[in-house]
Amino acid sequence: MKKKQIAIVLALLIVTNILTAFGSVQYVTGDVGEVARIKSLEHFLKKYYLRSDEVSEEDFKMGRRKGTVEALNDPYSEYFTEDEYKEFVESTTGEFYGIGVQIGAVPDSKLITVIAPIKGSPAEKAGIKSGDKIVSVDGVDYTVEEMEEAVKHIKGDKGTTVTLGIVAKDSTEVKQIEVVRDEIHMESVITGDLGDIAYIGLTQFEDDTLSDFEKALHAAEDKRGLILDLRGNPGGLLEAAVGVSDLLLPKADIVSAKDNHGKEVFHYTSDAKGWSKPLVVLINRGSASASEIVAGAVKDNEAGTLIGERSYGKGVVQTLIPLSGGDGIKLTTSEYFTPSGVNIQDKGIEPTIAVDLPEDIEGIGLEYKDQDTQLQKAIEVIRESDH
């Protein structure tokens, strides 16, 4: 795997410490009038707000910082407090507490959208699916603009219950769904037996995903072909996605990215060694971000067949910036392109063969092979291969 002009990359996040460049993010402005207006507003709030005794000067400072980033109207950019920053970094390890669901924003919707429930999580067991909308948490309504606050209330101690107001995809009816919070541990690489066909499912791209995938791929060398299941995989570490692509592809482009000046900030290519047998990649609306990098690289290089549904469509990259004092910023700083030069933001990747799932399906994957029409089609494609 080769890369040029590369920063240290994490989770479709470029992690960089730029404190030496600007010290830290502080409330600084040359507009004296604006400073006076904000100070006057804060004084007014302290004087008349019903619960002003509960609001500290530190609360106002954090509100200014968070509000400045929120003014970008970018669902992927965020200012983190010290605790929030630590929690976000820890979420890439594959172990955390909650209900096990990835949420985000989609075009033309003010509602919080479920990107994908984590396989085996309390959210999946409760019936929450990709494309569902979360409209309330414990009776309180939330929109995309309030997603950060909604997440705080969705999280909680292990064994406690949260009630979510859910609107299913293509429905307007709100259903109240109770979910019991639990410790979420994700096995990012899942393997199974399909006879002479290898099956590898990736639930997320984490620290150990690449090494585990390499072992699973090595164990599949004597198989007739490989089914790589990326359905419901919301993304994760960019380096892991690139590494997986490198193991699958012969010498080829994998992914590149450009900043707001059109300057290329990274460009990954694979080496000559790759998977030489038939390959099918399963995708759906829950396949996002890093998953789309793998799917796009396979499709554009004609290294395999994509089966399922159009993917989510996240084609932007965030830079994770640690600040002095422990706070941090996650900021969208570039957009990435598949090998054919396409940016998939809000578009997604179309499968080579579109296959819908039955409306009454209970689940997907090996456990539900008899119901999973997408997996059945993948098996059929490999068996009919000339290789």
Helix-strand layout with pairing:
Blueprint: E1 2-4, E2 9-10, E3 13-15, H1 19-22, H2 32-48, H3 57-70, E4 78-80, H4 82-90, E5 95-98, E6 101-104, E7 112-117, H5 122-125, E8 133-137, E9 140-141, H6 147-154, E10 161-167, E11 174-180, E12 182-185, E13 189-194, E14 197-202, H7 209-219, E15 225-229, H8 238-248, E16 253-259, E17 264-269, E18 279-283, H9 290-300, E19 305-308, E20 316-322, E21 328-337, E22 353-354, H10 373-383
Parallel strand pairs: 3-20, 14-15, 15-18, 18-19, 19-22
Antiparallel strand pairs: 1-17, 2-3, 4-21, 5-12, 6-7, 7-8, 8-9, 8-10, 10-11, 13-14, 16-17, 16-21, 20-21
Helix pairs in contact: 7-8, 8-9
Question: What do you see in this structure?
Answer:
Strand 13 (189-194) and strand 14 (197-202) form a beta hairpin. The chain has 10 helices and 22 strands. The model is unreliable at 4-11 and 14-29 (pLDDT under 50). The chain has 387 residues and is α+β, with helices and mostly antiparallel strands. Helices cover 26% and strands 28% of the residues. The radius of gyration is 22 Å and the shape is globular. Strands 1, 2, 3, 4, 16, 17, 20 and 21 form an 8-stranded mixed β-sheet that branches. Strands 6, 7, 8, 9, 10 and 11 form a 6-stranded antiparallel β-sheet that branches.
